[in-house]
Design brief:
Elements: E1 21-28, H1 34-41, E2 47-54, H2 62-66, H3 72-77, E3 87-91, H4 93-99, H5 101-111, E4 117-118, H6 120-130, E5 135-142, H7 144-156, E6 160-169, H8 172-175, H9 180-189, E7 197-200, H10 211-218, E8 222-224, H11 225-237
Parallel strand pairs: 1-2, 1-3, 3-4, 5-6, 5-7, 7-8
Amino acid sequence: MPDNVILSTERVVLEAPTDRKKIGLIALATDLTTERDFARIIPMDHAGVYGTRVAFTNPTTPDNLRKMAPEITAAAELILPGEMLDAVCYSCTAASVVIGDVEIATSINKARPGVPVVTPSGAALNAFFVLNVTHISVLTPYCIETSLPMADYFKFHGLNIEQFHCLGLDDDRDMARVDPDTILRAALETDTAQTQGFFLSCTGLQGVDVIAELERQTGKPVVTSNQASAWALMNHAGLEQTSDNWGQLFQYSLPYRNQVVSP
């Protein structure tokens, strides 16, 4: 060892604990979008988002999505061990529908007892509840096989689907590269006279980039996977959103009706 490497004589002073909120994130190994969206929506001067990854192999099919279920508890254990978290998000909409909101919450709570768990699908249900929307148009980037369970999920929870369009992709890395203009045009094609609100599914999709413009053109509220998840996480953590960029949803608080039952 070099003889000029020594222990400093400076007394180490640690900062006092702060009230900075700690939000856990479990993202797919292939996710290119969630962290960026959360960094834009969640006020990072008052919170930190601490992420881990769960293994996932494309194509994005119901069978491959189910394969993540046994890995969720271990992933939750890796988020700031020993630290208290204000909420944890499992960031995959299609997998939340296929595996089930309740099963995912149970798996995470095995590692983080008592911590509120957010899924994009459950957050979307709560969003439509507070927005008083019962007739929705849905756009997904998935193939039809992966989209069908989501249609059943929303119907099971009492929502009427006016239009349900799929972009037909089966690789979530491609879903993350769909340009916002394409998303906007495809979403506008789902609008009907009966449509009260839109859901843009998939945490990989750049849906948050079109919220403001889609609401401006239609006058109807827009809910996306990452926006709804961030909204629910912020409510659990007691954080406020003052920006108008992320839609009408942020005018409302998370309802007490925040537990859903999987079909």
